[in-house]
Amino acid sequence: MNHNEPYSAEYLKDILSSVKTIAMVGASPDKTKFSYGVLRVLHETGYDMIPVNPKPGIKEIRNLKVYPNLSAIDRPVDMVEVFRKSEDLYGIAEEAISIGAKVLWGQIGVINHDAAKIAEDAGLKVVMNRCPKIELFRPFWKPRLDLKI
User: Fold this and answer.
1) pLDDT of 117-138, one tens digit each?
2) How do residues 19-75 score in pLDDT, each as one tens digit?
3) Rounded to the nearest 5°, which phi and psi values hold at 83?
């Protein structure tokens, strides 16, 4: 797949309607961080969210147990969502493959074509530089160009 081209609405819809369990690598307990907001919305929408953060003092985020890495998770993971630097995505892709994830999703700004290739070669669907929270609600956006600013 060419990740420089826009993803089709059907591709994104298929992913977001088929996954149930999402491990979020780079989840933060800080309510001002974007990852916290995305975790909150996806969790409240009904996804089984698994926060992943290696910092020793972080045990829970939103009453959800925090895991230090993907291999420590004690149940199957459908999707690995990544809030890390682009260069970290390759190692996370390797971990996602090893735990049997079905989707690797790089958050806005997270792009690594080598990581995408190894994930796709292993049978995972890949999305990069997109936010699942935004994509989840995109079908309901109806711009009102007649409103005053």
Assistant:
1) 999 999 999 999 999 999 988 7
2) 999 999 999 999 999 999 999 999 999 999 999 999 999 999 999 999 999 999 999
3) -110, 65
- Residue 3 in any domain: the answer is no
What CATH number does residue 80 fall under? 3.40.50.720
What is the CA angle 93-72-123, rounded to 5?
A: 30
Q: Output Rg (C-alpha) for the chain, integer angstroms.
A: 15
**Tokens 């806005």 label which residue?**
108
Domain count, the chain: 1
The boundaries of the domain holding residue 36 are 9-138
Residues 6+ apart with CB under 8 A from 97: 118, 119, 122, 124
CA distance 36 to 72: 21
- Decide if 143 is inside a domain: no
Maximal C-alpha separation, the chain: 52
